């Protein structure tokens, strides 16, 4: 049975080389040490010697992190090839073929090396726009008592309407946003409503989102459209007039 993790304190360069060459497909490998990073590809860069955290993932991706910000200082995508050379410094080459990019990592010392058997597991995204639409289809009273959903992703020349339904006053076009709705969402909704109105239908339109910007709400009222507040988490709605 494969071990879940391994740890090497101040590993020899030969140990690091052996592990990167033979275990990279099986483990997430992390190196912490003093390093200099040279990059050549679409541009070029140099990161001078500093203590950094370097992560090698089984899919071939490599990330170099400093002590600030979310994004890595340098990185190479999945399917990158890794080569290691021994010398006074440990030299690690990470190459991407298309487009050709090379990351050269020079390490005079490796403070520690760890191997972790990380499982992918399942990932479920909650609070997506699709989930919001699904919840309204199942519980149309979230919009109004007389709302009847008719069709999801109704095709128009201007794109797909998230949800088309009908109420006692006519059709209701709903545009969903999982985050704050802005001017673009209102403009898109207006195009949908104008298109169906042009066909001779009685049409209302509404934005469904957890919040809406002041400028978007002002434009919404100008177009005589509506806003339905729906939280992706709570899935509760408050209609603002």
TrEMBL record:
GO molecular function: DNA binding; single-stranded DNA endodeoxyribonuclease activity
Enzyme nomenclature, EC number: 3.1.-.-
Location of the Endonuclease NucS N-terminal PH-like domain: 26-115
Family matches, as Gene3D superfamilies: 2.70.180.20, 3.40.1350.10
InterPro entries in the cross-refs: Endonuclease_NucS, NucS_C, NucS_N, NucS_N_sf, tRNA_endonuc-like_dom_sf
Subcellular location(s) per record: Cytoplasm
Keyword terms, alphabetized: Cytoplasm, DNA-binding, Endonuclease, Hydrolase, Nuclease
Presence of the UniProt keyword NADP in the record: no
GO cellular component, as recorded: cytoplasm
Residue ranges occupied by any Endonuclease NucS C-terminal domain in the UniProt entry: 128-232
Coiled-coil residues: none
Xref: CDD domains: NucS-like (cd22341)
HAMAP family: NucS
Similarity comment text for this entry: Belongs to the NucS endonuclease family.
Biological role stated in the UniProt entry: Cleaves both 3' and 5' ssDNA extremities of branched DNA structures.
Protein name: Endonuclease NucS
UniProt source species: Acidianus hospitalis (strain W1)
């Amino acid at each position: 049975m494969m071990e879940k993790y391994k740890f090497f304190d101040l590993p020899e360069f030969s140990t690091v080389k052996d592990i990167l060459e033979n275990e990279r497909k099986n483990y997430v490998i992390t190196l912490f040490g003093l390093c200099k990073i040279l990059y050549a590809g679409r541009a070029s860069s140099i990161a001078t010697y500093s203590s950094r955290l370097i992560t090698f993932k089984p899919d071939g991706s490599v990330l170099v992190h400093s002590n600030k910000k979310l994004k890595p200082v340098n990185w190479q995508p999945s399917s990158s090839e890794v080569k290691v050379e021994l010398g006074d410094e440990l030299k690690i080459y990470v190459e991407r073929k298309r487009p050709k990019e090379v990351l050269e990592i020079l390490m005079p010392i490796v403070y520690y090396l760890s191997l972790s058997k990380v499982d992918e597991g399942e990932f479920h995204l909650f609070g997506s726009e699709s989930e919001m639409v699904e919840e309204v289809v199942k519980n149309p009273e979230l919009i109004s008592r007389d709302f009847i959903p008719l069709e999801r992703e109704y095709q128009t020349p201007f794109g797909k309407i998230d949800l088309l339904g009908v109420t006692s006053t006519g059709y209701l076009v709903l545009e969903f946003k999982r985050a704050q709705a802005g001017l673009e969402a209102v403009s898109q909704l207006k195009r949908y409503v104008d298109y169906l109105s042009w066909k001779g239908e009685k049409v209302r339109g509404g934005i469904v989102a957890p919040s809406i910007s002041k400028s978007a709400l002002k434009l919404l009222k100008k177009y005589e459209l509506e806003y339905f507040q729906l939280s992706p988490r709570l899935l509760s709605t408050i209609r603002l007039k």
